[in-house]
Amino acid sequence: MTGRSGLSRRAWLAAVAAAAAGCDSQRPRTGFLGVMERWNERVQTWMFDPGRLAPDPGPGAVSPPGAFPVYYISRHLPVAPAGWALSVGGLVARPAVLSLEALMRMPRTDVRVRHHCVEGWSAVATWHGVRLRDLAEAVGADPRAEYVEFRSFDSGYYSSWDRASALHAQSIIAYGMNGEPLTPEHGAPVRFYAAVKLGYKMVKYLTAVNFLPVRTGGTWEDQGYEWFAGV
Amino acid sequence: MAANTDPRPRQPWPIRLTHWLVVPLLAVMAGSGLQVLVAYPDLGPRGEPYAWYPFPGTAPPGWARIGQWLAGGRHWHFAFAWFLILNGVFYVGYLAGSGEWRRRLFRPRRDARNAAATLAYYLRLRKAPPDQGLYNGLQRLAYTGALALGGLEVLTGLAIYKPVQLGWLAALFGGYDAARAIHLIGLALLVLFVIGHVLMVLLHPRTLADMVTGGRRDRA
């Protein structure tokens, strides 16, 4: 009995030491933590139900004016370059360059959902825009494009998504917030908004949406944050 | 000395294994969780913080954190959560399958009176401790409570990890922000349990030896 428990104690001590050796906090997507992230990504992909809608928390849950955090990585508030337009390309039959007016002529979708930030806070706003799935249909996105990449004029901030999450019914190219046009603080002219990912996946100040057969990274993902980041 | 009426050691090996595994696992989960808390050391949704929270804006101390930064803490937390769950499932499965739950878990009709008497003894309101077997009622209450807290931490953790895909679970706890608050309160209660547990072990060192060797097989 003692021999057996002695052995198992040594075994688990060794396992803990090995695991700790593979835990590099500065590069958490490598080593043992990286192995576990890939496992977690498979679990998250399996858990993701494309038909599940995030609930409407109701008008009373909308964050008070000014309480919804403002965030960008540039030193100064990013302002859209003159002649701004959104390019939609990659593996698509009809690449498009869309002005804000052209986007606003498309069918409008409104979503009021809770926003979940990687930092742990939540906030609520109502967002107005065009479903990416409608846009994907309009440009003829190839089914082989399993990923969608979003690029911005906020010092190159970008992120890539799995197609199913990007084309979720509550995933929109947003040009309005709480009944008003989107302000530069929140990503004007347009930002991506969705219910099914953490905030850092929802690229603001959009310049391009690319349907790609390969998965690219993202500004925060390249530094060590999770790529899937579903909620 | 009674005959060998109970062939089981006081602490069978699955109990000892899971007990000593949960020590580093809880430390890693608590430390990485506190590292995650640093990124937003407040409770409640933006613009409507919970007024009852006594430490708004206060980051947990550096010595209590694991992971160095938010992404590091999150990866540690989500990596080791699986091992905590596996350990817990194995422990509960063993308790159920072996019948050990009978002498370990708190059953109010059997243990409530004994727990109260033991508490009275510790508070010097009573001279002698009540009779007990492996554990007294108060121990059973504390260990069962700690196990329940572990379950609560897993469930509230899943709720804030997947507040949309597991929206029903988040709703059960009152929504994302409430589940996050309960997750932190659960940690605080677990820390209180650990402090009390270690103090009691210091007062009764033989229990520590039993948790290492298994202890005697017969009832003394």
Percent of residues of chain B in beta strands? under 5%
Helix content of chain A: 10-25%
DSSP, total strands of chain A: 10
Number of helices of chain A: 5
Total strand segments of chain B: 0
Give the end-to-end Cα distance of chain B, rounded to a whole number of Å: 6 Å
Helical element count of chain B?
A: 8
Largest interface: A-B, 53 and 44 residues
Give the amount of beta strand of chain A, in percent.
15-25%
Structural class of chain A: alpha+beta
Helix-strand topology string of chain B: HHHHHHHH
Overall shape of chain A: globular
Side by side, the strands of the main sheet of chain A go 2-1-10-5-6
Subunit organisation of the chains: heterodimer
Report the major sheet of chain A: 5 strands, mixed
Write the layout of secondary structure elements.
The complex is a heterodimer of chains A (231) and B (220).
Chain A: H1 2-21, H2 31-47, E1 86-90, E2 96-98, H3 100-105, E3 109-116, E4 122-131, H4 132-139, E5 147-152, E6 158-162, H5 163-166, E7 172-177, E8 180-181, E9 191-193, E10 206-212
Parallel strand pairs in A: 1-10
Antiparallel strand pairs in A: 1-2, 3-4, 4-7, 5-6, 5-10, 7-8, 7-9
Chain B: H1 13-39, H2 70-98, H3 101-104, H4 108-122, H5 137-161, H6 167-172, H7 176-203, H8 206-213
